[in-house]
Amino acid sequence: MNKFLDISPEVKDALEAGKPVVALESTIISHGMPYPQNVETALNVERIIRDNGAVPATIAIIGGRLKAGLSPEEIEYVGKNGAKVVKASRRDLPVLVARGADGATTVTTTMIIAHMAGIKVFATGGIGGVHRGAETTMDISADLEELGQTPVMVVCAGAKSILDIGLTLEYLETKGVPVIGFGTSELPAFYTRHSGFGVDYRIDTPEELAAAFAAQREMGLQAGMLVANPIPEEYSMDEELINSAIAKAVAESEELGIHGKATTPFLLAKVKELTGGDSLDSNIQLVYNNARLAARTAAALCK
Length: 303
Fold this sequence. Notes:
globular
């Protein structure tokens, strides 16, 4: 086992017993929502995973230790400290570990630590991707690179609609990452169920998802699998409203010169402000929905 990794007793026992485990990121706690709503949401997601037959493993870096499975007190710690906790991608891990510092894990680092621990399924909100204007800025999320090299299933609500979804799909195709629509042939766009872009395959049951991922792993294909699970209909936002808010947020970020890892938190906060908080409510519900599917898929994978 990696000497920098701590697996919580509950997660360790579950893995050793062959029980289903679902990884969860911590950036959504530190940078995605205000306190205390962030902590409440994180604990609710863990409860949903338990209710659907799996063990939750929220992942973070605390005191320079890679943590697979946080206690409620550690979740509270990350939530209270919020944006003071470094948003940690792959490049940040060596320095944070060496300094004994704290870090909140993105999709990238959650995949890395989950794979180290032996966790195969990960539930998140939406993945990062190719940002709008990336043909000149080269602003492409490390999430896509990780999906191309780390064999973890990522259950999400599609690519965040602040991104260039078409280019994100092209990049994933280049990396050999299967993009699966759960109950849909169209890639959802995070806040809404539709993007206008097709997925590689439609799959309608957790059991078939598990079978496809098991086959990928057994063939030794060193890539992740992206499962796009549309936001429930009742929480899907009006496409015209959300696209207008995103366009305004992107324009403001460009005017302010915001780039790199600061881009997504700024855009999500701005969209929340422009939608009167409706986007945050939708964000929470889609995470809950992904947690349910991930837990059921992890359970099917164990069988």
